[in-house]
């Protein structure tokens, strides 16, 4: 399931309902991304997330479908916020539920790696020197590239 | 066709959306970019280096050879930085 929203979310409530009533699930893996108060460019006092309505939902659905094709996932939840956020606030939640932990861990890491480089979101940081658009990081491209198309397990 | 701009591409061009009618010779992303650069200084600057800008046609990421046609929704934006 994909959710895009301005509001915060409660990871405990979200995890409690993930795969609820499905006794096949043996483990849930979670990633929660937060706004930091500093970046490579300096101190950060706020961050605004812009996105491309329509394409964002489609791209996240494509990424979820790819994860489900690669791993035996029982349930997936991706929540991504947009709008202006302050340091310490939650940005994103990725949670995967599977019978065994390895698929849940791998699929969760895959989802956040692909999300960062493929879902149309852009971060604009505010700091003492003004606002700046965050540059894409080569490390994120490298992380996403680890999950190549030809690694797909049928 | 409808052209959308996001993040610093939007800021440099000065609008988030415009309706354009390029000549029939504009048949792919590359030729559309060349045509859009002539619309204003902001367009020329924002779209000067295609290595720094990503393109989507009808909400799907594509390369410079991808065809474009009237009725399409074309978007230009920097590399993604979500998550």
Summarize the entry for a quick read.
The complex is a heterodimer of chains A (154) and B (83). Chain A has 154 residues and is an alpha+beta fold.
Question: Could you name the key traits of this structure?
Answer:
heterodimer, A: alpha+beta, four-stranded mixed beta sheet, four-stranded antiparallel beta sheet, B: 83 residues, alpha+beta, Ubiquitin-like (UB roll), five-stranded mixed beta sheet, globular
Task: Provide an overview of this structure.
The complex is a heterodimer of chains A (154) and B (83). By secondary structure, chain A is an alpha+beta fold. Chain A has one domain: Aldehyde Oxidoreductase, domain 3. Helix content of chain A is 32%, strand content 35%. In chain A, strands 1-6-8-2 form a 4-stranded mixed beta sheet, with helices on both faces. Chain A has a 4-stranded antiparallel beta sheet with strand order 7-5-9-10, with no helix packed on it. In chain A, a hairpin with a 2-residue loop joins strand 3 and strand 4. Chain A starts with a strand and ends in a 9-residue tail after the last helix. In chain A, 30% of the residues are buried. Chain B contains 3 helices and 5 strands. Chain B has a 5-stranded mixed beta sheet with strand order 2-1-5-3-4. Chain B has 83 residues and is of the alpha+beta class. In chain B, 25% of the residues lie in helices and 23% in strands. In chain B, a hairpin with a 2-residue loop joins strand 3 and strand 4. Chain B has one domain: Ubiquitin-like (UB roll). Chains A and B meet through strand 5, helix 2, helix 3 and strand 9 of A and loops of B.
